[in-house]
Amino acid sequence: MEIKVLGTGCQNCKALEKAVKEVVAEMNLQANVEKVEEIGKIVQYGVMLTPGLVINGKVKVSGRVPSKADIKKMISEEQ
């Protein structure tokens, strides 16, 4: 599973990255969690507001930090 956290390093971006890593650990998943900070790469996903969350190539969230329960649900949908 490929998970990308899109963001330039703002507080919300860091919060989303932390939450995603916690959820992956709690779910005992084999997942590659990558932080994407380059504006050009973020825009390629069509994300104009950060933070963004991309799971297996699909943009799941843009412009907000979802709850851990929401992150778990999004990951489960892609398994």
Automatic annotation (TrEMBL):
This is Redox-active disulfide protein. The active site is at C10 (nucleophile), C13 (nucleophile). Keywords: Disulfide bond, Redox-active center. Gene3D superfamilies: Glutaredoxin (3.40.30.10). Disulfide bonds join C10-C13. It comes from the Bacteria. InterPro entries: Thioredoxin-like_fold, Thioredoxin-like_sf, THIRX-like_proc. SUPFAM superfamilies: Thioredoxin-like. It comes from Desulforamulus profundi. Residues 1-75 form the Thioredoxin-like fold domain.
